Amino acid sequence: MADLLQKVHSELYKKDVEEARQGEAFAPFAEDPNTFSKKFYIESYGCQMNFSDSEIVASILHEEGYGATRNFEEANLVLLNTCSIREKAEQTVRNRLQAFRKVKDSRPGMLIGVLGCMAERLKAKFLEEEKLVDIVVGPDAYRTLPGLVAEAEGGQKSVNVLLSREETYADISPVRLDSNGVTAFVSIMRGCNNMCSFCVVPFTRGRERSRDAESIVAECRDLFERGYREVTLLGQNVDSYHFAPTGGEEVTFALLMEKVALISPLLRVRFSTSHPKDITDDVLRTMAKYENICKYIHLPVQSGNTRILQLMNRTYTREWYLAKVKRIREIIPDCGLSTDVISGFCTETEEEHQDTLSVMALSKFDMAYMFSYSERPGTLAARRYTDDIPEEVKKRRLTEIINLQNNLSKESYTADIGKTFEVLIEGESKRSDMDWVGRNSQNKVVVFPKTERDLKKGDYVRVKIHSATSATLLGNMIAE
Ligand code: SF4
Question: Residue 207 C-alpha to ligand 1 middle, in angstroms?
Answer without folding.
Answer: 11
